[in-house]
Amino acid sequence: MKLTELEVWLQAVDLVAHIYRITASFPDAERFGLTIQIRRAAVSIASNIAEGEGRRGRRDHSRFLLNARGSLYELQTQIVICGRLGYLMEDEASAAIERIANVGRLINGTIRYLSRAAGR
User: Fold this and answer.
1) Which of 24, 59, 87, 90 has the most Cβ atoms closer than 10 angstroms to its Cβ?
2) CA–CA distance, 41 with 56 (Å, rounded to integer)
3) For 66-88, how does the pLDDT look when each residue is reduced to its tens digit (9 = 90+)?
4) Among 70, 67, 79, which Cα is nearest to 34's?
5) What is the DSSP letter of 120?
6) In this structure, are residues 47 and 12 in contact, taking their beta carbons and an 8 Å threshold?
7) Total domain count for the chain?
8) Which regions in the chain score pLDDT beneath 50?
């Protein structure tokens, strides 16, 4: 299967687009603060999924997925912070958290699959 057909990657890329849209209205004072951190974390998720997919070994692939999951948790934390600071409406924050949770489930499922496949 090609990278561009993987549901985990597709959802991660959709998450990046969503994050860029919701951070576009952040205050100018956050342009080089939370805005850039949030965007980098989101891009890192999709990028690590892609890089892991490009690796030959399951162990290496899993390591990049774990990196993606770490960036996912970072992004989730930043979204919560933005909600508390009032940069996001409650419904925007909730929608972002749900997208993050969905990508997390897909990453975890892929990690489980690789782990089981390694045991065969």
Assistant:
1) 87
2) 25
3) 999 999 999 999 999 999 999 99
4) 79
5) -
6) no
7) 1
8) none
